[in-house]
């Protein structure tokens, strides 16, 4: 009964992503080091780290915060998975964030966490809310933009950094928003050309 509800509501992909993050969290630290975003290892060709680093977490609080964020996005935007599968959203957003981090921030040697990807997924969903005239889409979009702008102005939250035992990577949040905007633009262009071809 629960499995049917999860599948029907479009929640299955989100639940699988959360389960994967939990499973990776309990791996031995030596295994996690093989998956984390590490600049030097990426330069050596270990490109899987562009994606897998986003699925790891620095401690339990970090995992719980990101897990809660994922659940909120699931409740808000699970219905959009018919338009673009969560797997492709995750892969695209993770690659964009990691690539921008590698290109623009050589000082970041290691990174783990899902928060950048969550910002991308949430922003993408908020833009779809606007496109489909869903209530709150504009407010959510403006709220996300205001949050990342404030982070860029104020800098990382020191208290949150202590809680998760890591520096909050605010630029990953900004890069996630960029990725979400690019995903929306690509989807919009695809739908536009499909309509033009049909007509």
Description:
It is a single chain. It contains eleven helices and two strands, in the order H-H-H-E-H-H-H-H-E-H-H-H-H. The chain has one domain: Rhomboid-like (Rhomboid-like fold). The protein has 199 residues and is mainly alpha-helical. Helix 7 (86-104) packs across helix 11 (170-198). A two-stranded antiparallel ribbon has the order 1-2. The model has no long low-confidence stretch (mean pLDDT 89).
Main β-sheet, in a few words? Answer: 2 strands, antiparallel
The number of helical elements comes to 11
> Low-confidence parts lasting 5 or more residues at pLDDT below 50?
none
And the CATH topology? Rhomboid-like fold
User: Helix share of residues?
Assistant: over 70%
Q: What sort of overall outline do the alpha carbons produce when their principal axes are compared?
A: globular
- The CATH architecture designation is Up-down Bundle
The proportion of residues in beta strands is under 5%
Strand order of the largest sheet: 1-2
Give the domain tally.
1
The secondary-structure class comes to: mainly alpha
Termini separation: 43 Å
Strand tally, please?
2
Rg computed from alpha carbons, rounded to a whole number of angstroms? 17 Å
CATH superfamily: Rhomboid-like
Order of helices and strands: HHHEHHHHEHHHH
Mean pLDDT over all positions: 89
Could you name the CATH class? Mainly Alpha
Defining key terms:
mainly alpha; Rhomboid-like fold; 199 residues
Give a summary of the structure in a few sentences.
The protein has a single domain (2-198), classed as Rhomboid-like fold, CATH 1.20.1540.10.
């Amino acid at each position: 009964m629960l499995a049917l509800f999860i599948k029907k509501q479009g929640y299955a992909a989100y639940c699988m992503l959360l389960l994967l993050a939990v499973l990776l969290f309990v791996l031995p630290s030596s295994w996690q080091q093989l998956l984390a975003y590490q600049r030097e290892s990426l330069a050596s060709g270990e490109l899987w780290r562009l994606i897998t680093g986003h699925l790891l977490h620095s401690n339990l609080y970090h995992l719980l915060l990101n897990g809660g964020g994922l659940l909120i996005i699931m409740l808000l935007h699970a219905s959009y998975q018919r338009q673009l599968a969560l797997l492709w959203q995750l892969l695209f957003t993770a690659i964009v964030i990691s690539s921008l981090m590698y290109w623009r921030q050589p000082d970041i040697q290691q990174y783990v966490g899902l928060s950048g990807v969550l910002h991308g997924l949430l922003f993408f969903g908020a833009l779809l809310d606007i496109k489909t005239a869903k209530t709150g889409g504009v407010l959510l979009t403006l709220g996300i933009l205001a949050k990342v702008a404030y982070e860029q102005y104020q800098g990382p939250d020191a208290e949150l950094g202590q809680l998760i035992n890591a520096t909050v990577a605010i630029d990953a949040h900004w890069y996630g928003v960029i990725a979400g905007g690019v995903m929306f633009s690509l989807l919009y262009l695809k739908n536009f050309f499909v309509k033009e071809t049909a007509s």
